[in-house]
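Troubleshooting: if your tokenizer reports a length mismatch, compare your output against this known-good record of 96 residues.
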Amino acid sequence: MNIHVVAVFKFNENYLMEAVELFQTLVRETRKEEGCLQYDLIEDKNNKGTFFMVELWETEDHLNRHSGQDHVLDFRKDVSKMLESSTQVYKGFKTL
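Known-good structure output:
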């Protein structure tokens, strides 16, 4: 069963250029992963520094493997100092 994920990132405005560079690597490498059906970065048009990562994975196992990938671990480490608040992550299965 496919699993959907939406992660919300809120960055300090001083780090936006750096954050986008880190996201570019994360998105490029993640899209190569087995089981990744969708991995898109969306910038909130009304809230500068707020980004949504919209993900779709074939299975929850694929998502779990993604979480341990080097490019994900590096991203988390690198962005931790740039975030204005904790990342919110929502996971679920399609209802309708």
